[in-house]
Specification:
This is Por secretion system C-terminal sorting domain-containing protein. InterPro entries: Quinoprotein_ADH-like_sf, Secre_tail. Keywords: Signal. Strands 5-4-9-8-7-6 form a six-stranded mixed sheet, with no helix packed on it. It has a five-stranded mixed sheet with strand order 14-18-17-16-15, with no helix packed on it. A five-stranded mixed sheet has the order 25-31-30-27-28, with no helix packed on it. The chain is an all-beta fold. It has two domains: 274 residues, Neuraminidase, CATH 2.120.10; 83 residues, Macroglobulin (MG2) domain (Immunoglobulin-like, Sandwich), CATH 2.60.40.1930. It is built from one helix and 31 strands. Strand 27 and strand 28 form a beta hairpin.
Length: 388
């Protein structure tokens, strides 16, 4: 894996990440079949549940993007925001949204975790039918560039869900094929590759964790899935149904069978059981973190911040209200490759600064903003997404 100057946007989406909800689970009912129960926050440091954000019984206010108005959905169909069969979930931290798709439907739903309002993204790109197991959408994750990605069981559709202004746009990136080296460990065959979930790394590649515990690295450039190994340290009957990266850069996996959470080292694929709640039937996990070679050490000050993180008008605000921050500070902006694309010197007087900075010539995409003091010590790292 390529090493970066700033290799991981971990802990970069806020100075107080530990106080924020940043890990989510799609939880099902205690039944042999997939039956949606709720989306909830999860504290993965101790493996306990937090707020139930949206449940199968919640009142659903659905706004259709295509029809530009509120719609009433039939809850007895596969095409509704509370469909029984649900196995995909991603978290968009820039807008505090949960993004998901019913397993047997091409509908995409965007749930605002704060207001509970739902946007229906009707699309004709996804080709999903209830009777074709190959077409079912079962893996979803936020990419390093801020877009949402979803892959069906057989890899015949690789969807990109991006936001253009207030509208969501869906594109099919193509068919993911097996790498020639995979042999019997095929990404496209049910026994070895189907089901599971996926996570993203800082190179905007994806790792798909199949239900059988096999792990495939998916290159977005080549559209190939390369088998990298099988998870060890989990029970033989463990079905891997959810995966997401935690703040340490390891992958947390969960099972629809109500078995414990496990933490997996992505380099060794060795799993270690985590403490916490038992009998949680988890169909998918989502978080704001990304995998990479190593985590960034990040010293932060409670009263030093930049905002907004989703930049629509090419301006960000740098706010300091901390007497421990003195003199001149420097703001550096890095692109995804680690290239320094912008520098700005700022002056803090008596521990106070509130300045608007123009992000000149920055094209749409994800960036890392780093604030350092005169000695070069990092005071704050934060990821932003510039949109047109």
């Amino acid at each position: 894996m390529k090493r970066h100057l700033f290799p991981l946007f971990l802990l970069l989406l806020g100075a107080n990440a530990s106080a924020q909800q940043d890990f989510f689970a799609l939880v099902g009912k205690d039944t042999p079949n997939i039956v949606f129960n709720d989306f909830r926050a999860i504290d993965v440091t101790n493996g306990t549940s937090g707020e139930k954000i949206f449940t199968s019984d919640s009142p659903a206010k659905v706004f259709s993007q295509a029809r530009n108005g509120t719609v009433t959905e039939d809850k007895n169909t596969y095409n509704n925001a509370q469909a029984v069969n649900m196995a995909t979930l991603a978290y968009d931290p820039f807008n505090n949204n949960l993004v998901y798709m019913p397993m047997f439907s091409s509908n995409i739903y965007v749930l605002n975790a704060k207001t509970k309002e739902i946007t229906l993204v009707d699309n004709t790109v996804a080709r999903v039918t209830s009777c074709d197991i190959n077409s079912h959408m079962v893996r979803m994750a936020t990419g390093y560039n801020g877009n949402i990605y979803a892959i069906n069981n057989a890899g015949t559709q690789f969807l990109q869900i991006s936001r253009k202004g207030n509208q969501y746009v869906v594109n099919d990136l193509g068919i993911i094929k097996d790498d020639a080296s995979n042999g019997k460990n095929s990404f496209t065959i049910i026994e070895t590759g189907f089901g599971g979930d996926m996570i993203a790394d800082a190179d905007n590649n994806f790792y798909v964790f199949s239900a059988a515990g096999n792990v495939f690295k998916v290159s977005t450039k080549e559209l190939k899935a390369k088998f990298i190994g099988k998870i060890t340290g989990i029970p033989e009957n463990y079905s891997v149904n959810g995966s997401a990266v935690n703040a340490k850069g390891n992958v947390v996996i969960a099972s629809a069978k109500g078995l414990p959470l496990y933490e997996v080292n992505l380099e060794t694929l060795q799993a270690k059981q985590m403490a916490g709640e038992q009998n949680l039937h988890i169909y998918d996990l989502a978080s704001k973190y990304f995998a990479n070679d190593k985590a960034v050490s990040n010293t932060t000050f409670a009263n030093l911040d930049i905002y907004p993180t989703r930049v629509d008008e090419h301006f960000i605000n740098v706010n300091v209200n901390d007497r421990n921050v003195k003199g001149n500070i420097k703001m550096n902006v890095f692109d995804l490759s680690g290239k320094n694309v912008m520098k700005q010197n700022l002056s803090v007087k008596e521990g106070s600064l509130n300045q608007q900075v123009y992000l000149k010539n920055l094209v749409s995409g994800a960036y890392l903003v780093s604030i350092t003091d005169e000695s070069g010590k990092i005071l704050l790292n934060k990821k932003i997404l510039v949109t047109e």
